[in-house]
Amino acid sequence: TDITDLHALLKLENENNWRQFLLGLIGTIHYDLEEIDSARTILEESITSYKVYSPTFDEVLSVYCQSCYTLGVILFDDNLYGDAIPYFLRCLPYMQEVYDETYIGHIYTFLALCLSWTSQAAYSAVFSEAAAFIRRYDCESLEQLMVAYGDTGEIDKATEVFHLLQRHCQDYENYDRVLEYAEQNLGESGVVN
After folding, report:
1. Segment-wise mean pLDDT, segments of 10 residues, the chain, 193 residues
2. What is the pLDDT of residue 177?
3. Largest Cα span, the chain
4. What is the Rg, in whole angstroms, of the alpha carbon atoms belonging to the chain?
5. What is each CA distance from 73 to 6, 9, 21, 61, 66, in whole angstroms?
6. Is the distance from CB of 17 to CB of 52 less than 8 angstroms?
7. Distance (Å, rounded) from C-alpha 191 to C-alpha 193?
8. What SS3 class is residue 85?
9. pTM for this prediction
10. Residue 119: exposed, middle, or buried by beta-carbon count in 10 A (0-12, 13-18, 19+)?
């Protein structure tokens, strides 16, 4: 199997960052196989053992970022939002080097949600704005932006975003949730003006 082959390579590799690269690949394969506990353990070991100050770090950057993202998702899925934040943040400095806009939008969205759900509304709003921009103001990112503005007390902005959702997202699968939020938190009835 791929995991067996990678473990064989791991025994031969002496350079630290390349060892972590191989461990990161093993961890992400475990994740893809839905072996979440193994993935978490291996990815935690790999991520914390990289030496970012080593000249080889640039060569292994893509797997480092993928490992951070995957571990962040695992922690997010386990409702460990505060624990997930540092792993998503580790992706930020290198995102433009290794990710396309879709992944960048996901990272911003995960950060916005984690920060919101750990009562860090002002920071959540920053990443909600970034996610909405990168994701081209899709309905899901607009909903998160509306909630983020509401959480920071920027009710006028939240209401403006709600009106965008009204005009462009009535077919959105969570539109009922949008309407419920607007009615409860913004005093909006959901009637299109």
Report:
1. 91 95 97 97 97 96 96 98 97 87 91 97 97 94 97 96 95 96 89 57
2. 96
3. 67
4. 20
5. 23, 27, 19, 18, 10
6. no
7. 6
8. helix
9. 0.91
10. exposed
